[in-house]
Protein: M20/M25/M40 family metallo-hydrolase
Amino acid sequence: MQLLQALCQISAPSGHEAPLTEYLLDYIRTHQAGWRTHPTVLAGGEFQDCIILVFGTPRTAVFAHLDSIGFTVRYGRQLVRIGGPNVETGYRLVGQDSQGEIDCTLVVDKETGALSYDFHRDVERGTELTFYCDFRETETTVQSCYLDNRLGVWNALRLCETLENGIVAFSCWEEHGGGSVAYLAKHIYETYGVRQALISDITWVTEGVRPGQGVAISLRDSLIPRRSYVERIRRITEAAGVPHQLEVEGSGGSDAKELQHGAQPWDWCFIGAPEDNVHSPHEIVDKRDISSMLALYQVLLQEL
Structure:
């Protein structure tokens, strides 16, 4: 969990993923010698702050978004949401501007819902603020801000250790409308002929998806994947005996929306551990679900 803690502590809200991108590139350079297969690393230039890792002869691509929710400083101490963060007066926010480090408090107007911050000075406009990371680990759970989607990134990095054939793509902007997966998917499809994907992201605990019951395979959210592809995944999962549960939702989305709306014929399925206290500083995930998530990805990248 040390790697997960390190990932959660890096500030990388939508549009400013570069600090996390740099961390991942350094991590890849340092650790790839111990991986089963050395990947081709595509980064920078036309890929902006995204990273594509190509292993062997790929058949399936895994997408994991780097960015998180947060806030942008506007004028007169106003804050604008990045994505859809949960907001409560008293949440601790951190950041940095040209005057130094910022450690301030979120304030939510009870009547209007307007957001502002409490700090001993004005913060420069355009500064990004993110939740302070208080990483808590027990024998059975991990709890922190930004498990969505640093846990999906963690899963993808751990998958790289044993991956022989496949693609791992780290995307940007997912929490605030997306935009990067379209060009990543186009490049992957046109260069490698890959057109089936898994979305390594974190879903929600609901009345039908419970913590500790295994990784969630999503049958649908606001979008509907191709049923025959999802059924292949279910058959492989059941044959492997990986603990899992099925999710059916009518709202929400992920990087998959750009795959489904794109010009290439991508199949996709969202597979992720469920978390509670979504989009807050206190997101919590059961370690059993983390283990089953990684185990399932390892199986699927071999069998699909």
About this structure: Residues 70-131 form a domain with the Elongation Factor Tu (Ef-tu); domain 3 fold (CATH 2.40.30.40). The chain has a mean pLDDT of 97. The chain has seven helices and 19 strands. The chain has two domains: 2-68+136-303, 70-131.
